[in-house]
Amino acid sequence: MRSDMLDNGMTGFVAHPIRISAADIESEVLRKLPIPQYYLLETTGCVDIDRQLFDEFDGELCEVCHNWCPRPGGKYSYGTKVTVPLLSTWDGSDLVAIRNIKNAGIYCSRKVVDLAIEKKWTGFGIQAFTDGLPKIDLTKANWIDDLAVAVANRFPGAS
Fold first, then answer.
1. Nearest to 58 by CA among 40, 38, 78
2. How do residues 102-113 score in pLDDT, each as one tens digit?
3. How many Å apart are CA 122 and CA 42, to the nearest integer?
4. Cα torsion at 55, 49, 97, 9 (round to 10°)?
């Protein structure tokens, strides 16, 4: 994955080598095989999400760490909320993390998805940027069209 992404000019990450020794491997069969080089991909790209759609500015957001908490008695609580990117804040990277509200999600460009399909990456999957949309089946040739229809149905009038 790392090599594929570097070879194709993908941006928004730094690949940190992970050292694995035979003593770290529990399986006796695997311990006898050559140890592959693994990498931790640190996401460096960023984008903000639309705070109006996220919680209508109802929650409490720490200006320093961007941790979000529900306002006591407020309209929104912990759990899934609408996360729509503000494209004007996207730094153009192929891998991005949300900058303005602390979130564990890592998001990727269509280029990354197309590369994953082409190279048949295992253990790779995607989901829509916001919840409430159907699971994306990357084995279907028209997965993007299905997603576009679902988005249009969920957010009528959005472009």
1. 78
2. 887 888 999 999
3. 19
4. 160
Q: What is the pLDDT of residues 47-93, one digit of tens each?
A: 999 999 899 999 999 999 999 999 999 999 988 788 888 999 999 99
Helices (H), the chain: 2-7, 28-31, 51-55, 110-119, 143-154
Q: Give the pairing of strands 38-43 and 68-69.
A: unpaired
Structure tokens at 108: 């990727």
Which of 75, 76, 54, 74 lies closest to 66 in space, CA to CA? Answer: 54
Among candidate residues 34, 39, 70, 38, the one with its CA nearest the CA of residue 54: 70
Question: β-pairing, 60-61 with 68-69?
Answer: antiparallel
DSSP 146: H
